Amino acid sequence: MSNFIPTGIELSYLVATALFFVGLKNLGSPATARKGNVIAAVGMFIAIVATLLNQGVLNYELILLGIVIGSVLGAIAAYKVEMTSMPQMVGLLNGLGGGASTLVAVAEFWRLLHSVETVSLDNTITMILSILIGGITLTGSFVAFAKLQELMSGSPITFPLQQPINVLLLIGFLVGSGYLLIAPKDPTVFLILTGISLLLGVLFVLPIGGADMPVVISLLNSFSGLAASAAGFVLMNNILIISGALVGASGIILTQIMCKGMNRTLSSVLFGAFGGGAKASGGG
Amino acid sequence: MAEGLIGALFVFVLATLAGAEVINKVPPTLHTPLMSGSNAISGIAVIGAILVAGDRNLNLSAILGFIAIVFATINVVGGFLVTDRMLQMFKKKEVKA
């Protein structure tokens, strides 16, 4: 009996992962797209129910409350949104997913900080990657949402010294990461790294024009997959690693297809505001 | 590096290669629904959120996990429903045409 439940959970994860692959495959063709979406949703349901059976999961009230609140908010948002606002809706949802992955990494860091366990090098590296990718996804998606929703100007926003600031932030992130590898239980440095990641997400999307936002959201969707995968490495959980990698890889391919459809290259979309400014503003 | 990490890297790389093969020749009308559907799958982070919130002690980790559950569930539920709404619309259009 003691082995029955953990084995059952792992097997359920295997089924769920397979359903994700089949669902995504079906989503790519018009005749089967709707069925594919349902298949993936069934996979997600199985994965969540299986996780609730985990013996380490004790706070049922808290968890169910979270699931109910999230479901209600998600359903309201899905039914209220206008058809014309779909791309920014996906952007917003995507940001929340990236935010969740970041929070998982921060929560795991906090747990390790207050336990007697030593933090291994692997742990530190995966947590750093997780907050970096997840943080960029969170704020980048929110800026993309704001641009499409016209909460802020859709034109590329550049300011003096933008590139030097980006480079400085990246260097700061690398230095902080290096420090954390030596002294893994330093909450201040960890929080600074989280802050830099969030800032990088904003700075990454600001210089990109509103017409290119769908491509950016697709790229950030790929990032949110990688963020989930990184969170999977932090918790050493296969279903997170596999599903995240699936979304990450298919998201990149889809992004390239979308770029091709617009006769653009991905690099001209991302860095157009810096190099060929005229080209970028005329695109899309 | 720990053995567990190497195993996880194998899984990651193979899943990435498989994921890259799943998508090819998608008609433009399906770009947004496909993005939205795969975005809902990335809400799988909800599993991680449940695991970190599961601790009996109600400390900061559990609270962060709780917020992560709310975020990820919005992503999952909203994502799948929005995708279905988009695809429903395409079907009606096709019938009319």
N-C termini distance of chain B = 59 Å
**Count of DSSP strands of chain A:** 0
β-strand percent of chain A reads under 5%
Mean pLDDT of chain B: 87
Interface with most residues: A-B, 101 and 83 residues
Computed structural class of chain A: mainly alpha
Question: Approximately how much helix is present in the residues of chain A?
Answer: over 70%
Distance between the amino and carboxyl termini of chain A: 59 Å
The ordered string of helix (H) and strand (E) elements of chain A is HHHHHHHHHHH
Helix-strand pattern of chain B, N to C?
A: HHHH
Q: Mind telling me the C-alpha Rg of chain B? A: 18 Å
- Low-confidence sequence ranges of chain B: none
Largest sheet of chain B: none
What does the main sheet of chain A amount to? none
Number of helices of chain B: 4
What ranges of chain A have pLDDT less than 50 throughout 5 or more consecutive residues?
276-284
What spatial form of chain B do the alpha-carbon principal axes imply? Answer: flat
Radius of gyration of chain A: 20 Å
* Coarse structural class of chain B: mainly alpha
Categorize the overall geometry of chain A: globular
Catalytic activity (chain B): NAD(+) + NADPH + H(+)(in) = NADH + NADP(+) + H(+)(out)
Function (chain B): The transhydrogenation between NADH and NADP is coupled to respiration and ATP hydrolysis and functions as a proton pump across the membrane.
Domain NAD(P) transhydrogenase alpha subunit C-terminal (chain B): 9-92
Protein name (chain B): proton-translocating NAD(P)(+) transhydrogenase
